[in-house]
Write a structure and sequence with these properties.
By secondary structure, the protein is an all-alpha fold. It contains six helices and two strands; from the N terminus they run H-E-H-H-E-H-H-H. Strands 1-2 form a two-stranded parallel sheet.
């Protein structure tokens, strides 16, 4: 006799309704995909930076990558705790994402940092939108996303410190795309 496994567990965390717990978990699925994409993008940049500041930028990216990978795990485990199976498969990520692949290959450190700044702007903006929605439903998940935003905003500042002119303007100011940011920062 075959045992039928439900597609979704019939539980969530105590204190949340099943509907709200599963809604929060489904909101986290897009964040899981975005975090997975971010850690791969950061690793790609890590492998492809060149130029005078190579070693500093190369080594600055490692802790960011490690922390984002930990955020991936934390987010997936929160989803499971809420009673929804996380999907970390690349095909689902590509099918459901609303952004394009990172567009910079081998390039100077300033080009990658300027492009990654644009990546962080998009990522953090969407993370904060999810934070607003989750904050209405679950303070535990809200705390997790707040902590993630705080760490990622700090990393973005590290990058921006490399792009900042003496007057406080960023070398990529006004750029809307990775390519335009990279070009402007050279």
């Amino acid at each position: 006799m075959a045992v039928k496994i439900p597609a979704q567990p019939g539980y969530t965390v105590p204190g949340l309704s099943m509907k709200d717990g599963h809604k929060v978990a489904h909101l986290l699925q897009s964040r899981l995909h975005a975090l997975n994409d971010l850690q791969l993008t950061l690793k790609h940049a890590h492998w492809n930076v060149v130029g005078r500041d190579f070693i500093g930028v190369h080594e600055m990216l490692d802790p960011q990558i490690d922390l984002v990978r930990a955020m991936v795990d934390e987010t997936a485990e929160r989803m499971a705790t809420l009673g929804v199976s996380p999907n970390g498969l690349p095909g689902d990520l590509v099918a459901k994402r609303s952004w394009n692949d990172y567009s910079i290959g081998r390039a100077h450190t300033s080009a990658h940092l300027a492009a990654l700044d644009i990546v962080y702007v998009g990522f953090l903006s969407s993370h904060r939108k999810t934070l607003e929605q989750v904050g209405q439903l679950d303070p535990i998940t809200e705390d997790m996303i707040i902590a993630q935003c705080a760490q990622l905003e700090l990393f973005q500042w590290f990058m921006r410190a490399h792009l900042e002119h003496d007057g406080g303007d960023l070398a990529n100011a006004g750029s809307k795309t990775e390519r335009s940011a990279a070009k402007k920062a050279k």
